[in-house]
Hints:
Strand order of the largest sheet: 1-2
Number of domains: 1
Number of helices: 9
Largest sheet: 2 strands, parallel
Amino acid sequence: xxxxxxxxxxxxxxxxxxxxxxxxxxxxxxxxxxxxxxxxxxxxxxxxxxxxxxxxxxxxxxxxxxxxxxxxxxxxxxxxxxxxxxxxxxxxxxxxxxxxxxxxxxxxxxxxxxxxxxxxxxxxxxxxxxxxxxxxxxxxxxxxxxxxxxxxxxxxxxxxxxxxx
Length: 165
């Protein structure tokens, strides 16, 4: 699959037989994150032009799934988990545990290759940020966001997400 190793080649340029063969030759890992956490991170990084989280969320909702940024598009529209059989799905917030398992499965020494990850602190921080920022949204925005990310919420176990409520 020499063509695949060039930057310009997209998987969609191959026929179905070649796509299946190419995907079968790789270990496929999908990293997923609560959609609300992705929105918060994007907002805090200044990727939106809005002065408030509520107005940023409205920009996201107005952009729709087809015109939105990769930073906030639903994961199912980006990664196609229903079409591609991923070998591993790694949840943000459990990186140390899951990456260690992934490295051991690959036959690599997990302890020496993993950076210091403070998952519990990250989870607590995002829980607090989610509570604060979610409370800024109107009931209609909350409902629209849940609908916007409905397929992500159905495909991945984001059971503690505010959007699942």
